[in-house]
């Protein structure tokens, strides 16, 4: 009779060891949720950084091309302040621009025309700008 009881105790112990307790399942699910939240946060941050970098690259390229046109022009642009927004069909949609042209005298008797091209764009609640300057000889 004692051998039968030992067998039943071993059988009950074996049955209890086959599954997970509810506490173990809850702990593993909470670890999984925390891991997925961290992955989602890093993924959304990566997408934001990619978008910001793309906008900055567009602004740099466009401003440098505009200043290059002014540098290579046979007649320097007149002293003025211009601004505007790009058309929705253009590749610069969502950007605004400002162009400042002014004469400066860094030293007595030397006159230089400064051309400042500024691009502005919104990302979320923030406004970002990129400024580029060039100096040309007034003609």
Order of helices and strands: HHEEEE
Summed up, the helix count is: 2
Instruction: State the separation between the terminal residues, measured CA to CA.
Output: 116 Å
CATH level-3 fold name? Pantoate--beta-alanine Ligase, Chain: A,domain 2
Our count of domains comes out at 1
The low-confidence parts are: none
Judged by helices, strands and strand pairing, the structural class is: alpha+beta
Structure description:
Helices cover 47% and strands 32% of the residues. The chain has 139 residues and is an alpha+beta fold. It is built from 2 helices and 4 strands; from the N terminus they run ααββββ. It has one domain: 2-Layer Sandwich (Pantoate--beta-alanine Ligase, Chain: A,domain 2). A 4-stranded antiparallel sheet has the order 1-2-3-4, with helices on one face. The chain is rod-shaped.
Write the layout of secondary structure elements.
Elements: H1 2-16, H2 22-72, E1 80-85, E2 95-107, E3 110-123, E4 126-136
Keywords:
139 residues; Pantoate--beta-alanine Ligase, Chain: A,domain 2; alpha+beta; 2 helices; 32% strand
Outline of this structure?
Helices cover 47% and strands 32% of the residues.
